[in-house]
Amino acid sequence: NIITTTQQTTMAPSIPKSKAPPSSFLFIKAGMPLMIFCVGASYVLKSGIEGKQKESDHSKGVVSKSERQARLEKEQNEMMEKINKIRKTDFDNTRRIERPEEILDRRKHEREKRNVWYRRAWRSVTFQK
After folding, report:
1. What dihedral angle (degrees, nearest 10) is formed by the CA atoms of 28, 30, 32, 37?
2. Span 8-25, mean pLDDT?
3. What is the pTM (predicted TM-score) of this model?
């Protein structure tokens, strides 16, 4: 058995490791132009779309607002509608809040009123609770 070794031939000449360009040079030569192109293209596209939107808004007579400002105005309009609705009804803000003792007294009075003998008798006759 004779083993023969064949050498593979390549089209590109091989560069020895000692003469390979540093990776920073490769980035400057290939990566930097690509990044500059991408950033420039996105800027041009963004400014073109903004200009088109401003022009169409101007022709329609619409004043463009920020999203936050539009949301705040919508909330303000909703609140004003609620306030106007409350104003139309008779809103009495001077009503006094009952104290806990007064609530207990009122409930006790209602219980006593409900448990008067003739009401108790009528409930027992009519089988009500």
Report:
1. 160
2. 62
3. 0.34
